[in-house]
Specification:
Elements (H helix, E strand, L loop, with lengths): L21 H4 L1 H12 L3 E3 H8 L3 H13 L3 E8 L2 E8 L1 H17 L6
Antiparallel strand pairs: 1-3, 2-3
């Protein structure tokens, strides 16, 4: 039984109040995706780090998780002699993010479209 409703979750253990993707729902991963979805869908590692106020280690770990989940693609290249990491939202990532937003709207009454 769930404490809030007193009802037993449906088979599979998923409550109607827990559809949000755990891959996206983490605070840092959500911030990364929100930034990418509103800034031409790609950004450099340095740009993300500065815009979101994250450490190299924190950003690296969360980008790795998003890449493993197929939500972002990470490209490493050189600009002159300097390495540059570019992060881009994949087609599947855009689809997952849109689904996440729809699920969030369904959970939060009155959330603007």
């Amino acid at each position: 039984m769930t404490p809030a409703s007193g009802k037993t979750p449906p088979a599979g253990g998923v409550s109607p109040f827990s559809p949000l993707s755990p891959l996206i729902h983490g605070r840092v991963r959500l911030l990364i995706l929100c930034y990418l979805m509103t800034h031409a869908e790609s950004a450099t590692f340095t740009e993300l780090r500065a815009a979101l106020g994250l450490t190299d280690g924190t950003l690296s770990v969360h980008l790795s998780r998003l890449a493993e989940g197929g939500v972002v693609a990470i490209e490493k290249r050189f600009v002159g002699k300097r390495p540059q990491t570019v992060v881009k939202v994949t087609v599947a990532g855009r689809r997952s993010f849109r689904q996440y937003v729809q699920e969030l709207r369904a959970l939060v009454p009155g959330l603007a479209e």
